[in-house]
Amino acid sequence: MKEKDFKRPDGRKIDETRKITAKVGIIGNADGSAMFSFGDTIAIAAVYGPKKMHPAHLQNVAKGTLRYNYNMISFSVSERIRPGPSRRSMEISKISEWALEPVVMTDRFPGTVIDVYVSIIQANASTRCAGINAAALALAHAGIPMRDIVSSVSIGKLDKQLVVDVAKDEEDWEEGEGATDIPITMTSDGRITHIQLDGKIETKQLKEAIKMARKACKEIYEIQKKALKESLEEK
Amino acid sequence: MRKVIIPGEVIVSGESYLPGDGTEKRGNDIVAIKYGLAEEANKLVKVIPLSGVYIPRRGNLVIGKVENITFNGWVIDIGTPETSFLPLMETPRFVNKNGLDEFLDLGDMVVAKINEITKRGIDLTTKMHGLGKIEKGITMEVNSNKVPRVIGKEGSMISMIKDETRCNITVGQNGIIWIQGNNVEDELFAKKAILHIVEKSFVEGLTEEVKKWFEKNRRGK
Hints:
The structure holds two protein chains of two kinds.
Chain A: E1 20-24, E2 32-38, E3 41-52, E4 65-72, H1 87-100, E5 112-122, H2 127-141, E6 150-158, E7 161-164, H3 168-171, E8 179-187, E9 192-195, H4 203-233
Parallel strand pairs in A: 4-5
Antiparallel strand pairs in A: 1-2, 2-3, 3-5, 6-7, 6-8, 8-9
Helix pairs in contact in A: 1-2
Chain B: E1 3-5, E2 10-13, E3 18-19, E4 23-26, E5 29-32, E6 36-41, E7 44-49, E8 61-70, E9 73-77, E10 84-87, H1 100-103, E11 109-117, E12 122-125, E13 132-133, E14 138-141, H2 147-151, H3 156-165, E15 168-171, E16 176-180, H4 184-199, H5 206-220
Parallel strand pairs in B: 3-7, 10-12
Antiparallel strand pairs in B: 1-6, 2-5, 4-5, 6-7, 8-9, 8-11, 9-10, 11-12, 11-13, 14-16, 15-16
Helix pairs in contact in B: 3-4, 3-5
């Protein structure tokens, strides 16, 4: 299928993300907080700490711990989901934690913990990417030393066509080879901290997917940067 | 000039610059590792953070709450991840080992200075003039990053509030402020003034702005 002939359900171009909004400092009681959304997918993140790790046996004397909690609110999808941790949310928490750990300088806070709570208040696919983007903003807002800001985007393969920022109706693609979802997280200079692949893709096409992610992440990074800068300048 | 900077952003490039607080040298670039305002003075580049938790420094004046009493001192909560400890030896007068709570009891507020920061935690002292237990007045909390604004350039802001409200004010670097006045009305007025400063902390010419605020609110009183 030719690129031009391919039509996405919502009429977007293949390399076009949904409308992105980002805002910093939304939760007064947190040390740092942020909101990030891809169209209808909205994630809010709150950061607490660094604070002393309790219980003490979980303390790491060499470096601090980053604790990420991904939670989908029960009303975030049209069919109510059971609240509380699930297999899926625990897996995403761990994955997101690994995506952020390379940029957070935890070695400066031995024996402490930085808690990141991410809530998905409205979901329309790509929730983990929105969560990571919000968490990166919230961590910066909390004044935690970071090497860089990470940006995350999901690349989808619908049948044979690669698209940027998968929406729910695209995730359920059934024609041809079906849908493959590839969430990718990278730093502002394009180094990958997280990549997941669920499905089938050729090596050559995967390389192309990374190239697309690099371009989309650059756009997301600019929006994140703008959100952080504006939150200080408007006051 | 000051500009807003985000982690990973290059502040300046060049051999001759030195990395200060909140920055890192990567090759020839000075890169920010914190979110805040970048400032350059005498080739030293630093980032002033405007949000986040209090990071203790040696010699800081802090105000904390007695959290626990041990056999040889007090555990004080000053809002840091590390625990801070005030040893019995660091009190200005003799304290009986069996009556630690007579000098400082659980829940008491205390003004102290950071003596030393070790791997185990923070050591405090009260062996100086103006330090010790808070007997009267009120305490309030602001974000520790706003403390320089409350104090102002060479203490200009804080002395103005003191003059206007006739209150004695001690500002802890950890963001806890102790206000002591002749009556509660004065103290609450001082609190209101400080909250106003915190809210307007990004305004240029803040001292002028606060001066105006005082004029307006004095008349109404």
